[in-house]
Each structure stands twice: as C-alpha cells, then as structure tokens.
Amino acid sequence: MIPALFLAHGSPMLAIEQTPYTEFLAKLGEQYEPRAIVIFTAHWESETLTISSTDDVYDTIYDFGGFPDELYQVKYPAKGSKAIAAMLEQKLTANGIEVRTDSVRGLDHGSWTLLHRMYPKADIPVIQVSVNPYLAPERQYRIGEAIRGLGQEGILVIGSGVTVHNLRMLNWGQKTPEPWAVAFDDWLLEKLQSGDLNALFQYAEQAPYARQAVPRAEHFVPLFIAMGSGEGEAQVIHRSYDLGTLSYMCLQF
Question: Looking at the DSSP assignment, which residues form a beta bridge with residue 60?
Fold first, then answer.
C-alpha cells in the first residue's frame, strides 16, 4: 500500500537547487512506484473542487517571478489521465462533494517542482486537484476521506503545501529556524500523533503562533486532505527549515 503524503513545496528553487531536502525528495520517489499521482496543490484555488481531466501532456506553469532564467527552462511533461480523473470525480460526488473538471490547465509549481525531483522521467500520469482555502478544516478532511483507499490501488495521493508559510516573515539568508515556527510545528505533530482531530480542526484558535504560521490557509489545507485520505498514524518523514520560518516538514499517513 502506498501512503498518502503531505509534502512541502516551499521555494520554486527546489527544482534546480541541490539541498538535503531535494535529496530527500529523490529518495522518496525511489520508495514508491505508483501507477498514477493525485496531487492537491495550494497554487490552484477554486470555490468548487476542480480536477484536471486530460490524457495530454501538461504545460508547465511558471506561476512566480524574479527567479533565475534556469528555473524557467525546467519542463515537466507529464500526462494526465481522464480515466483516473473520472474515478476521482465519482468517489467525490458519491460523498456529496461538488466537483468540476478542467481539460486545459497545466501543472503549477506546487506540483511540478516536487514531482520533477521525485519522478524526473515524468512518466507517471498526474491528476492535479484544486483546493478551496475557505472551507472549514473538517470539510477538507472529508474530501480526503472520500478518496481514502487509493493507496491500495497503487495511486499516490499528495497534499502539496507548507505548514509554516508566511512570506512577510521570511529572514533571507537565515538557516536556523525561528522558535515560534518550531513551536507551531511541534504542536501540530503532537496533535497529529495523538489523533486529536478536534484540536487540529481548531488549530487557528488553539495552536501557538497560528496567525504567524498560517496567515492564509491555502498552503495549510492540503495537510487535512492528505490526512483524511491516508490511514494510520501520522509519521514525520522529513523536517527542516529555510529562511528562518519556512517549514519543510513532510508527513505520511
């Protein structure tokens, strides 16, 4: 069985830099050989959950600016899968979740930067799914629950986001993490590993430094989707920080 993953996509530079984190992603990709990848990305927001539905090769979207030219040369020519998109749509609608499909959108950097490191051959079908950051955590979790069991079918589910993501509080050049960022992740891990869903759903009120860590929820909600779609206790598979406050904590379920 393939576990569900929550992976930090952090800076787009991870697509071209060589760091301990990119080495981790490469080794992670070697552990699993899925027949398809379903990825919920923080960089595709929509009011109605939207699933990419195509058999064609995706365009690579460079949804960022001000980075080296080398980054804009990276392509990730993965194909989609209409069949798996239709299966996802059926599972979600059967659980009362409204769904739309999209046949033209490419892969944003919340998807391709990670996948470029994990599966550089781009030979595994990818189904990209949007998030609605305004839904309550309980509803995000139910989206994951609706597709639970895909790992038993050889499909890798990834929630692509970041636990601590506040661009205004980055400290350029700083390699040691700020204590408040660590404290937020520590609280999160404690509640995840104890299975305290009520506390997790109320993280905005209960977690220390929640406002600093999650000023806006789009990068955080993929965690709840991955958690709902997985089975068993959460396990930390990587934890590091960059720029003082950017968390690269990754989890499997």
Answer: 107
Q: Is the pLDDT of residue 10 over 90?
A: no
Amino acid at 179: P
- Look over the chain and give the mean of its residue pLDDT values, rounded to a whole number: 97
Q: Which CATH superfamily is domain 4-252 in?
A: LigB-like (3.40.830.10)
Residue with tokens 């690269």: 248
| Domain ranges (residues) in the chain | 4-252
Mean pLDDT across 8-15 = 94
Q: CB count, 10 Å around CB of 209?
A: 19
Distance CA 249, CA 188 (A): 11
**Which pair of structure tokens corresponds to residue 171?**
């400290």
* Paired tokens of 96: 């009362």
Residue 209 gets the label, from left (phi > 0), alpha (psi -120 to 50) or beta, of left
d(CA 43, CA 109): 7
Token pair for 176: 């040691």
| pTM exceeds 0.90 | yes
